[in-house]
Specification:
The structure is a single chain. The chain has 2 domains: 2-44, no CATH class; 62-164, Glutaredoxin (3-Layer(aba) Sandwich). The protein is globular, with a radius of gyration of 26 Å. The longest helix has 16 residues, at 90-105. It is of the alpha/beta class. It has helices spanning 2-13, 32-35, 40-44, 69-74, 90-105, 121-126, 153-164; strands at residues 62-63, 80-85, 111-116, 134-139, 142-148. The protein starts with a helix and ends with a helix.
């Protein structure tokens, strides 16, 4: 049965003028009638499924640097959560999955960015980042809050809710 299904799928997706030949010992291939339930017309008429309704919602953490900082953070209409981190920092690796979850949970309500302090030291020094991880909240291009260290998700959600509630 599994082999027959495999051949059905192969026959359905094989190019019409394919010169490829399937060499199988003394195996009996399915008849044309066995291929009938898998009509190509029925498969091709399926309507597309929309997974995400909002094209502008970003559900992942965006990498910010000196080049795109103004466009991503300063000009953003929604509140922006920015994590300052470095690849060698253990606590930064601990908080990274939390920031990823927040980006998914608050997609369309906030923008989550991360800045590698090794790659963008000028951005970090502009905002007085001396310890990492540091999370800053921006709203309307203005720094509103900062949290230093690897904090629990609940701390960050409370902070985010404070700023998306006052939009």
């Amino acid at each position: 049965m599994a082999m027959e299904t495999c051949f059905r799928a192969w026959a359905l997706h094989a190019p019409a003028g394919s010169k490829d030949r399937l060499l199988v010992g003394n195996l009996v291939l399915p008849s044309k009638r066995a291929l009938a339930p898998l009509s190509v017309g029925r498969v091709a008429t399926r309507r597309p499924r929309h997974v995400c309704q909002s094209k502008n919602a970003v559900d992942e953490v965006v990498v910010a640097d000196e080049k795109n900082w103004d466009g991503l953070v300063m000009a953003c209409e929604t509140p922006v959560l920015v994590e300052f981190w470095a690849p060698w920092c253990g606590p930064c690796r601990m908080i990274a999955p939390v920031i990823d979850e927040l980006a998914k949970d608050y997609a369309g309500k906030i923008t989550c960015c991360k800045v590698n302090t090794d790659d963008s030291p000028n951005v970090a020094s502009t905002y007085g980042i001396r310890s990492i991880p540091t999370v800053l909240i921006f709203k309307g291009g203005e720094k509103k809050e900062s949290v230093i260290g690897a904090v629990p998700k609940s701390t960050l959600t409370t902070l985010i809710d404070k700023y998306i509630g006052s939009s």
